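Team,

Forwarding the record for the chain on the shared tracking sheet. I've put the sequence and predicted structure together so nobody has to dig through attachments.
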Amino acid sequence: MTKEDRRNAYLYCKFRDEQFALYDEYAKSNGILMKTFLVLNALFYAKDGMTQKEICDRTFQSKQTVSLIIKNLADDGHVTLSENAADKRNKTVRLTDAGRAYAEKPVRHITCAEDTAMSMFTPEEQALLIDLSRRFTRNLERLVRESTD
């Protein structure tokens, strides 16, 4: 590993952290906690709803965190939980009309900003950014898990 490798890792992670801070600031400016915003974003685009496990998988949050967020959203009338016909142990979470109205402006705005930011790259740059980000994430995942095994 070279000094340049360490510098670039630092810069890449700094930019990633800056993105997370932007999402957090944006969510808070809309009166929403960032983790709740991630759940609302996932549910907003899930036309048939999602199970809590699917929400966990999509948002990379723990079962406990998602469960608490769903409970709070349900208490506020933003989501409903209904029995899943395919698996009665899992409930399907769906936004209510009030929940959709609550989430629509901030979710659509962030989605539009993400899409527009990506469109500022050429198709080749987009593919390269996605490929390299995916590879970095997989490499990091493997290396982090190696140290805990």
